Amino acid sequence: MMLFIRTNSAHIDFGPLVAKLDDDLKIRDGEDHAFYAQFNKTASLQQVVIAYENEKAIGCGALRPYAPGSIEIKRMYVAPEKRKKGIATGILKELEKWAKELNYHQCILETGKNQPEAIALYFKNNYQIVPNFGQYTESDNSLCFEKTLG
């Protein structure tokens, strides 16, 4: 049975999932990894969603306030053996629902061009490519997305 819980970055299951995400991103990002890693600190994330299957943590995602009315989706991850089962979409939907409850009207995010699964996930969930924002403005390996929450 699939369960999505809301918590924060201090949750015991969040750190190990993020460590697996970072291991994967080190490979995908290559020499750009240090640049991206500086923007992915998790110590103060107050909105974290963790996905469980049979009481085992298998995925996560988080929200970080970006600007008035706009919140950034961060640290999306699903264990490789659990992918293509709708888990990432479930995490994303829970994050969007939470963002709306917090009175945000827009979700933004950045993902790397070497993450085709993530790109497909965001397109599937009605995110639109926008010009790179903030620290990613000059990054050739970034794709930025946004979605207006209904």
Topology overview:
Elements: E1 2-7, H1 14-29, H2 33-37, E2 47-53, E3 56-67, E4 70-78, H3 87-101, E5 106-112, H4 116-124, E6 128-130, E7 142-148
Parallel strand pairs: 4-5
Antiparallel strand pairs: 1-2, 2-3, 3-4, 5-7, 6-7
Whole-number total of structural domains? 1
Structural class: alpha+beta
Number of strands: 7
CATH superfamily: Gcn5-related N-acetyltransferase (GNAT)
Low-confidence spans: pLDDT under 50, at least 5 residues?
Answer: none
Number of helices: 4
Mean pLDDT: 91
Assembly type of the shown chains? single chain
**Major pleated sheet:** 7 strands, mixed
Radius of gyration: 14 Å
* Span between termini: 28 Å
Query: Quick one: CATH class?
Result: Alpha Beta
Task: List SSEs in N-to-C order.
Answer: EHHEEEHEHEE
How does CATH name the architecture? 3-Layer(aba) Sandwich
The portion of residues assigned to helices is: 25-40%
State the CATH topology: Aminopeptidase
Describe it for me?
The protein is an alpha+beta fold. The chain has a single domain (2-148), classed as 3-Layer(aba) Sandwich (Aminopeptidase), CATH 3.40.630. The protein contains 4 helices and 7 strands; from the N terminus they run E-H-H-E-E-E-H-E-H-E-E. It has helices at residues 14-29, 33-37, 87-101, 116-124; strands spanning 2-7, 47-53, 56-67, 70-78, 106-112, 128-130, 142-148. The chain has a 7-stranded mixed beta sheet with strand order 1-2-3-4-5-7-6, sandwiched between helices. Strand 3 and strand 4 (70-78) form a beta hairpin. The longest helix has 16 residues, at 14-29. It is globular and about 40 Å long. The chain starts with a strand and ends with a strand.
